[in-house]
Design a protein that fits this description.
This protein has 344 residues and is α/β, with parallel strands linked by helices. The strands form 3 sheets. A 7-stranded mixed β-sheet has the order 1-2-5-9-8-7-6, with no helix packed on it. A 4-stranded parallel β-sheet has the order 10-11-12-13. The protein is globular. About 6% of the residues have low confidence.
Length: 344
């Protein structure tokens, strides 16, 4: 066994994210969990001009990318502390600054047989993780919750993604930036590039600046509405459901009786947007003594507008067939050429 006992969960949306400059990020996976990347990873890599649009579309990629991996799919990722029986390979210490980035290939070997089995990543600006080579190891799990399809009437367990939107530094959380980048791609695809109205509150704060920058001005022709377990089905035929992603299976909740394009968000984030956390002005039971005022700090507020993660946005939009529409392809090409321009 090359890991401690772990249970399968969905691959986090920020698994492919790098964040900031010189920042030390925590572990990608919670201890005791693992996830599987369904896409190919690692060498060999082929550039877009070698692949062509038809072959890329067969791979589920519908807009130009720098290169595509033609390695094996199914890489398994765990928290570094959950690995067992592995050792660093001498000389495989490539990294940008503060640790290993895996740029020179697998850097962990099995202690018993010496075979290269995994890549440890712990450099700054990367989520700390150990990625097991799918051709060197096998998943010994015998099923479990993630092996079953999500029941669309079952409320997903949201506590697995209890991430505040704003960090103590006053900046937006990188997990939220990644989720907004992915959600924005789905929202643009569902809107077909036309103006869209969104729910108020935090959802509007997250998405409106990007929508105003990327979509034409005008009266909204569609609207995004929250949908999911315990909520009524979207009433309008043109409504765009914003739905939770099951934290175990990674499947997006589907509105009953209708096949419509949705905007999937991590379940915990979705729950915070649907039912915002409100601070009671007085204790839940009883009251404050006379003359005593509450002095607990107000909720953290961001110092800047939300900037969706541009790489997560491009990765997601390139894998949606709707990107082949001229208006959406224009947005994709514009962001790809200037990934840190407004609103990113």
């Amino acid at each position: 066994m090359l890991s401690a006992p772990v249970s399968r969960v969905a691959l986090p949306l920020h698994a492919r994210q790098s964040w900031g400059n010189g920042l030390l990020l925590p572990a990608l996976m919670e201890s005791g969990t693992y996830a599987v990347d369904p896409e190919p990873s690692g060498p060999p890599w082929r550039r877009w001009d070698e692949i062509g649009a038809d072959e890329a579309a067969a791979r589920g990629v519908f807009a130009p990318v720098h290169a595509l991996s033609f390695g094996a799919p199914g890489a398994i990722v765990v928290a570094p502390g959950d690995t067992r029986g592995t050792a660093l390979i001498p000389g495989r210490y490539a990294g940008n600054c503060c640790g290993l980035d895996g740029s020179d290939g697998p850097n962990l070997a099995c202690e018993r047989c010496g075979r290269e089995v995994a890549t440890c990543i712990d450099d700054c600006s990367y989520w700390r993780a150990v990625w097991f080579d799918p051709e060197a190891v096998r998943d010994a799990a015998d099923g479990g919750p993630a092996a079953r399809a999500a029941d669309r009437d079952e409320a997903p367990a949201c506590e697995r993604w209890d991430v505040p939107p704003v960090e103590q530094t006053g900046g937006w959380s990188p997990e939220w930036s990644a989720a907004v980048g992915s959600g924005l791609a789905h929202l643009l695809a569902a809107s077909a590039g036309a103006p869209v109205a969104v729910p108020g509150g935090l959802f509007a704060e997250l998405f409106t600046p990007a929508l105003n920058a990327l979509l034409p001005a005008g009266e909204p022709v569609r609207r995004a509405v929250f949908a999911g377990p315990g909520l009524p089905a979207p009433a309008g035929a043109s409504d765009i459901p914003v739905v939770p992603i099951h934290p175990l299976t990674g499947e997006a909740w589907r509105p009953p009786g209708a096949e419509r394009r949705t905007v999937p968000l991590p379940a915990g984030m979705w729950a915070r947007l649907v039912v915002p956390e409100e601070r009671l002005p007085v204790p839940a039971t009883g009251g404050l003594p006379a003359g005593v005022l509450r002095d607990d700090p107000p909720p953290m507020r961001p110092m800047t507008l939300m900037r969706p993660d541009p790489q997560i946005f491009l990765h997601t939009l390139a894998r949606l067939p709707a990107v082949r529409r001229p208006r959406l392809r224009g947005i994709y090409d514009r962001v790809r050429s200037r990934p840190y321009g407004r609103p990113f």
